[in-house]
Amino acid sequence: MRSVVSGLFTVVAMVCMIVAVPSVWLTQRVVSTDGFVASASEAAKISEVQDYFSQKVADSIEQASGSKLASNVALPLAQSYSRTDAFVRDFAEVARQQHDWLFTQPAPDADLHLMELDITPMINDAIKQASIPVPVSFDRPILVTIDQRQITAGSMEDSGKLVTVAAWVSVIGAIVAALLALLLAVRRSTVLAWLGVGGVLAGVIGALLAVATKSVVSDRLADTDPSARNTIEVVVGGISDDLTQLSLLVGVGGLIVLAVGGVARVVSGRRALA
Q: Which of 23, 26, 33 is nearest to 166 (CA)?
């Protein structure tokens, strides 16, 4: 009877491990505002993202000033600015706006498919590097609008809450079930080995989910502006790489636990024969 109950708790612990890896990752890196901003900010160091926002800054200056000359002057300044720490800081604020758009209930009259990003701080910092004045009026925020055909404003609010609950439940469940399985086990080394298998499975499935996430996002952005799509894919790719790294750590940890359990099982078997 003890073996059966221990086996059931082992299975529960393994399932909880598999759920915990992606749910904890999502909670820490996507649902959490600070985690999302930190992950997305890494994309500010990638040339495709820098070039995209450099062009947006130059285009916005042209629209605000009504002068093509101003845009021609602004573009090299924006490109230079996008390689600085100031751009990384300003991009983090843009990422925060993106997170708010996804996880906050929109106003009743808002267009659910249009994401508006205020890039006024980027323009101000780019102009600060100019040796000549650029005639731009900033009596209102300068916004960049991105058409998100497959994603809507606030669409991740409810799912974010569910993921957070799932993360807590799965982590606590994995710990409690694993401890009970070991306490009730007749052969603890065997249970330990199976818990190691659970860790390996969690790592493998988590890594596969990271690959699938990139593919799904790419498909959903098929109709988005190419430059915007490339930027979003870079950001999502960086966040997905975090899941890959977490999955590898969990998988390696599982292999270690599996090896320890296997060795302990062999040693205990030899002692029983002796």
A: 23
Separation of alpha carbons 187 and 269, rounded Å = 10
pLDDT tens, 48-84?
A: 888 888 888 888 877 777 777 667 777 888 888 889 8
Question: DSSP string of 244-256?
Answer: HHHHHHHHHHHHH
User: How far is residue 151's CA from residue 226's CA, in Å, rounded to a whole number?
Assistant: 16
CA nearest to 228, candidates 59, 17, 71: 59
Q: pLDDT digits over 226-248, tens only?
A: 666 777 777 788 888 889 999 99
List, as own/partner pairs, every contact residues 72-76 make where C-beta atoms lie below 8 angstroms and the sequence separation is at least 24, other chains included: 73/130, 73/132, 73/134, 74/126, 74/127, 74/130, 74/134
Dmax of the chain from CA atoms? Answer: 91
CA-based nearest residue to 135, from 121, 123, 119, 145? 123
Name the residue ranges covered by the structural domains of the chain.
2-30+155-260, 42-147
Task: Record the tokens describing residue 234, joined without a space.
Answer: 């870079």
CB 150 within 8 A of CB 227: no
Using left for φ > 0, alpha for ψ between -120 and 50, and beta otherwise, residue 134 falls in beta
pTM (2 decimals)? Answer: 0.81
Q: What count of Cα atoms within 13 Å lies in the side-chain half-sphere of residue 204?
A: 9
- Could you tell me the sign of the dihedral formed by the alpha carbons of 131, 135, 139, 143, in that order? negative
Cβ proximity of 109 and 67 under 8 Å: no
CB 247 within 8 A of CB 186: no
CA distances from 106 to 150, 153, 185, 244 (A): 16, 6, 52, 32
Q: Report CA-CA distances (Å) from 190 to 59, 62, 260, 264.
A: 64, 69, 10, 8
